[in-house]
Write a structure and sequence with these properties.
Blueprint (H helix, E strand, L loop, with lengths): L7 E4 L3 H12 L2 E6 L14 E7 L5 E6 L14 E5 L2 H12 L3 E8 L5 E6 L5 E6 L5
Parallel strand pairs: 1-4, 5-8
Antiparallel strand pairs: 2-3, 3-4, 6-7, 7-8
Length: 137
């Protein structure tokens, strides 16, 4: 297996809902492991997600989990998940689903550098950037 870099998102108890939402947005195969399934079946967080991984037909991998007990969940504004490419229909479809129920910081529209670009935060508080470039000729 080659090395790869992918986002790993932390949630405050709603990782299952968030990862299932991303599965609806991107399609693919979602694997969810709870704290209970790895030996903490009596713990209060037994039904929470210890590790989730979504692998999509487009080759995206998105991981996420609920913040473990004893660790502070402190979302910030120091990251965004970026989607880019030249398949306008696919990327616009992702945009519509991700921005629904969230907030749009930059509308998805043509920008001064020539690409179509937008920024939104989904309903789980995760910031996304979508950039649609012209297909290579």
């Amino acid at each position: 297996m080659t090395s790869r870099l992918n986002p790993y998102l932390s949630f405050d108890g709603d990782a299952r809902q968030a990862m299932e939402f991303y599965e609806q947005v991107f399609g693919g195969t979602l694997a969810l492991n709870t704290f209970g399934a790895v030996g903490e079946s009596d713990a209060p967080q037994a039904d929470k997600i210890m590790h989730g991984m979504l692998e999509t037909p487009s080759g995206f991998t998105l991981m996420g989990a609920d913040t473990p007990p004893g660790m502070e969940h402190s979302p910030g504004n120091n990251f965004s998940v970026s989607l880019s490419g030249d398949d306008e229909a696919e990327l616009r479809g992702y945009w519509e689903k991700l921005s629904a129920g969230g907030s749009v910081a930059v509308p998805l529209e043509k920008q001064m550098w020539g690409d179509v670009f937008g920024m939104c935060t989904d309903r789980f508080g995760v910031p996304w950037m979508v950039n649609i470039s012209e297909p290579a000729s």
